[in-house]
Design a protein that fits this description.
Blueprint: H1 2-7, H2 10-18, H3 21-34, H4 39-63, H5 67-74, H6 76-90, H7 93-109, H8 116-164, H9 181-192, H10 200-214, H11 221-250, H12 261-276, H13 281-314, H14 326-345, H15 349-375, H16 388-413
Helix pairs in contact: 2-8, 2-10, 2-11, 2-13, 3-11, 4-9, 4-10, 4-11, 4-15, 4-16, 5-6, 5-15, 6-13, 6-15, 7-8, 7-12, 7-13, 7-14, 8-11, 8-13, 8-14, 10-13, 11-12, 12-13, 13-14, 15-16
């Protein structure tokens, strides 16, 4: 147990990164609109996507190489595919996360004297300084505290809504259909981003690389996987917490929920305090803001690292990744690029996020197959390759992702 606690790092960072809008908005909305039955797609998505993230941890622990290097070993074509997906994420994901977090800060804590753009800029500066000065070790230590606070706040919130019981149904309320066009599109969004996009397996791999540098003794594969499993299970549990909160406080009320993440979070907090009492506002406000702040910090760190690693593999003679201030420079570049995106394209942010969603969903089956091919390649000794049970789950996940991507494209073309 002591060794496991020392090894905690990549798994917790994964949990922190994953519990963003997919949990705060989509999980809560799932419970609010469709009730307890949403437990099934949430757990199914977490189960079927598990191997693809686990392979990132497995490959890095065994080979001491990043998953991106594994793609490079398969052939430059695979590296270009991952580089393309990363490029789309670079110009969309961070900007969207920071805008949502800024809006949450303003709504939850009553900040009206400045705009969302100014708050976003302050968040960019503050988080960039934390990442540059503190580096990976600070990120790991601080996220242990943030995740602990988030888990406690959500646990208390969930217990309170369970004790209070569900809100009474409105007289005119009619249960919405799940398998009509609106319901299926919602399921696509929920499952596609639960727990997060498949390309994040490369992020977990790079956190694993950094974790290896901070440890005196290299962890065994068993220990590394146990650590990741802690974070992964925590991710699924928190998704269920958010779903329960939505189910107990909103389901059956007929309340029209906003598609805007900031407005929705404000709706959720106000409805929750109406249901439980104004004294409970603090818990849900802290949980909501901590969710998005930690996601911003981990995503900013991950995208900076993965961009550096991709550039290093594309231009191996430049020795980009090993330069002294490379990471700090990339953190600043990511902040600068996404600040420009917010400033110039704030009115079209929805379209940019839709582009990122499309690319992520369509490439998910291919990235899953690349992960399997990498972890079963010659770099990994036979005794450390995934067993038959995990392979079967992987193939099920690949079929699931493929059908999901095909149906998503079909829906867009209608």
């Amino acid at each position: 147990m002591k060794a496991l606690l020392k090894a905690l790092g990549p798994g917790l960072l994964f949990a922190s990164m994953a519990i963003g809008t997919s949990h705060l908005v989509l999980s809560t909305k799932a419970g609010a609109q469709y009730g307890w039955v949403m437990v099934i797609p949430i757990l199914l998505a977490n189960l079927l996507k598990y191997p693809f993230f686990e392979f990132g941890v497995r490959y890095t622990t065994v080979t001491e190489k990043s998953l991106i290097e594994g793609y490079t070993n398969l052939g430059k074509t695979y590296l270009y595919i991952y580089a393309f997906v990363t490029l789309i994420s670079t110009f969309t994901i961070l900007a969207a996360l920071y805008v949502v977090t800024a809006g949450l800060f303003m709504n939850l804590f009553g900040v009206t004297s400045v705009g969302a753009g100014t708050i976003s800029f302050c968040l960019f500066v503050f988080i960039s300084l934390l990442l540059i000065i503190g580096k990976y070790q600070f990120l790991e230590r601080s996220l242990k505290a943030v995740i602990s606070i988030l888990f406690i706040a959500l646990l208390i919130t969930t217990l309170m809504v369970l004790q209070k019981g569900p809100v009474p149904n409105a007289e005119s309320y009619q249960r919405p259909e799940i398998f009509n066009e609106v319901g299926i599109l919602f399921l696509i969004g929920l499952v596609g981003w639960m727990p997060t996009a498949v390309e994040a397996s490369g992020w977990v791999s790079l956190w694993g690389m950094e974790n290896l540098k901070t440890m005196k003794n290299k962890p065994t594969l068993k220990l590394a996987l146990q650590e990741f499993n802690v974070g992964y299970i925590l991710t699924a549990v928190l998704a269920l917490f958010f779903m329960i909160i939505g189910w107990m406080t909103l389901y059956g009320t007929g309340t029209k929920l906003s598609g805007n993440a900031v407005v929705f979070a404000d709706q959720l907090v106000n409805l929750f305090t109406t249901h439980i009492g104004s004294w409970a506002y603090f818990f849900i406000a802290v949980a909501a803001f901590a969710t998005m702040f930690s996601t911003c910090m981990t995503a900013h760190d991950a995208i900076s690292r993965v961009s550096l690693d991709v550039l290093q593999k594309l231009y191996p003679k430049k020795n980009i990744y090993d330069q002294k201030h490379a990471f700090a420079l990339m953190v600043i570049v990511m902040a600068w690029i996404n600040w420009i995106v917010i400033s110039l394209f704030s009115a079209n942010m929805g379209k940019l996020v839709a582009l990122a969603t499309f690319v992520s969903f369509v490439f998910a089956p291919l990235l899953g197959w690349m992960n399997l091919k990498t972890v079963t390649g010659k770099d990994v000794p036979d005794e450390h390759k995934p067993k038959m049970g995990l392979k079967v789950l992987t193939y099920c996940g690949m079929v699931f992702l493929s059908l999901f991507a095909l149906y998503y494209c079909w829906m867009l073309l209608l």
